[in-house]
Amino acid sequence: MIKMLRYAVSAVFVLSAVAAQAAADRPDSLSAGVADSVAEAAPYYAGDGSELAVWDRANDAYARGEFRAAIDGYNSLLAAGRESSKLYYNLGNAYFKCDSIAGAIVSYNRALSLDPSDADAAYNLSVAEARTVNRIEGLPEFFVVSWFRNISHIMTSNGWAVVSILFFALMLAGGVWYLLASTVGQRKAGFTVSAVSLFLFVVAVCVATSQKRDKIDSGRAVVMATAAAVKSSPSVSGKDLFVLGEGVCVSLGEKIGDWRQITIASGDKGWILSEQIEVI
Hints:
Shape: globular
Mean pLDDT: 82
Radius of gyration: 23 Å
Strand order of the largest sheet: 8-7-6-3-9
Order of helices and strands: HEEHHHHHHHHEEEEEEE
Distance between the termini: 51 Å
Number of strands: 9
Number of helices: 9
Low-confidence stretches: 1-5, 11-36, 41-47
Largest sheet: 5 strands, antiparallel
């Protein structure tokens, strides 16, 4: 019976990995795979082909070194409602080539919000952030928070949703096993399977929900201005607390008029003009 339990748990983990990978590999709007400096699109969505033509022209422009034309093409797809991690990844690369570090950081962050497991976007984001003027030391992070974030980045929210369903099914199977078991040992095994599956189900649901919430409103923004003065109050007459350079990522607070309260990685807070930041 213990061997059967081990086989069942192993099978569920394998199925979870396969299903999650399948969900993670399915982009939101454009199917793509990394190739050289940009991601090459495949005809995933139905349409008259005009958007795929724009995508191809933008990729060709990037390959020719016409990065501004590539940016215009990628942004036109976004304006048409087409969105995927690879589209934002390509856009970020084009911005980076134009020395628009803030635009690159925004794009890479948006790519990661759609697909946290995108290693290319994560690496390029770190390269872009290294080009920013400000070097802000973050506050120490509780290890559980770091663990939760690292786990959540393994796959997309759709992948975690699939995994949660599989763990829920295993939890029900463990419960049935517990109710139908004829020996104490079997009942203990069924209870253990059900309890562990319940815990993993809750974790998967929490991760999937967190990622979905981050897609809707990340609560973060990037400084777009070359030099943005952070004030002590939402007014031009407020005292200058510090100055942030282009590309710094901030957490967003309340909004008053044209001003937005922000918090930087070090924990310092202040007010900045909304026009000087772009929400991720």
